[in-house]
Specification:
It is a single chain. By secondary structure, this protein is mainly alpha-helical. The protein contains 5 helices and 3 strands; from the N terminus they run αβαβαβαα. Strands 1-2-3 form a 3-stranded parallel sheet. Strand 2, helix 3 and strand 3 form a beta-alpha-beta unit. 20% of the residues are buried.
Length: 123
């Protein structure tokens, strides 16, 4: 694990996404060993429904940041990683813009469909 984290940047890795449940040590261990940004994904896997994982990732010591997304939020971790990478890549930035515009269009369409529904309130 330490070898992976220490040498990831030498292999061309730009951002690391690490999921972990319960004690959630994995993202923190990686962040301590790499100069790259680390995004932690808390995984629901204990009686605490992922809250323990989330709090563990949020409580990193100074100098060892772990960006943390929602419990089981791997999709948001991927989007955040793309946004980080897009900061220095105009073509990738356009893809992120297009993706987010697509999300907006899905919401607009869903709202239009909801507006067509007819219902009566029975109290």
């Amino acid at each position: 694990m330490s070898d992976f984290a220490r040498n990831a940047h030498l292999r061309g890795v730009k951002v690391i996404i690490a999921g972990a449940g319960m004690a959630a040590a994995l993202p923190g261990v990686i962040a301590a060993e790499t100069p790259l940004p680390v995004i932690g994904v808390p995984i629901k896997g204990s009686a605490f429904e992922g809250l323990d994982s989330t709090l563990s990732m949020l409580q990193m010591p100074p100098g060892i940041p772990v960006a943390t997304v929602a419990v089981n939020g791997a999709q948001n971790a991927a989007v955040l990683a793309m946004q980080i990478l897009a900061a220095g890549d105009p073509a990738l930035l356009q893809k992120v813009i297009d993706y987010k515009q697509g999300l907006k269009q899905k919401i607009v369409k869903a709202n239009e469909e909801l507006a067509k529904l007819q219902y009566t309130c029975k109290v």
